[in-house]
Amino acid sequence: MTPGQLRTLCLSFDAAAEDFPFNPETSVFKVRGRLFALTALDARPLKVNLKCDPEDAVRLRAEHPGLIVPGHHMNKRHWNTVTADGTLPDRLVGELVEDSYDLVVAGLPRADRLRLDRP
């Protein structure tokens, strides 16, 4: 997955926005003000922090050692750092981004969830 593809994917979700609260190099993708993806799009290899169900996080780390690891500078139980350098299938990376978005949406207040175009 290229940095452009990752950025496009993150912004394709309803109410998704890109912000730079830390520095100009670190893209923070949010939905209704809540973080669902964090990445330095210029970094090589390309890595992205994504929210994950704790049980799935452990399973994914075991299935993809070195490519999916506990979230760097994040709550290690709920966040993974995913290397998106082409080693993992783009489809899997896309599913993990979407899962992260969905988990964050699920934690939004009901009124905010109802404004989103998500099942």
Question: Could you characterize what this model shows?
Answer:
Helices cover 35% and strands 24% of the residues. The chain has 119 residues and is an alpha+beta fold. The chain has one domain (3-112): Aspartate Aminotransferase, domain 1 (Alpha-Beta Complex), CATH 3.90.1150. A hairpin with a 7-residue loop joins strand 3 and strand 4 (47-51). The protein is globular. It starts with a helix and ends with a helix.
Shape: globular
In what order do the strands lie side by side in the largest sheet?
1-2-3-4-6-5
Largest sheet: 6 strands, antiparallel
Structural class: alpha+beta
Q: Helix tally? A: 4
Fraction of helical residues: 25-40%
Tally of distinct domains: 1
- Top-tier CATH class: Alpha Beta
- Roughly how many Å is the radius of gyration? 13 Å
Pfam family, one: YjbR
Protein name: MmcQ-like protein
InterPro entries: YjbR, YjbR-like_sf, YjbR/MT2646/Rv2570-like
Keywords, please?
35% helix; alpha+beta; 6-stranded antiparallel beta sheet; Aspartate Aminotransferase, domain 1; 4 helices; globular; 119 residues
What's the gist of this structure?
InterPro entries: YjbR, YjbR-like_sf, YjbR/MT2646/Rv2570-like. The protein is an alpha+beta fold and 119 residues long.
Give the SSE layout.
Blueprint: H1 3-11, E1 16-19, E2 27-31, E3 34-39, E4 47-51, H2 54-63, E5 68-70, E6 79-83, H3 90-106, H4 110-115
Antiparallel strand pairs: 1-2, 2-3, 3-4, 4-6, 5-6
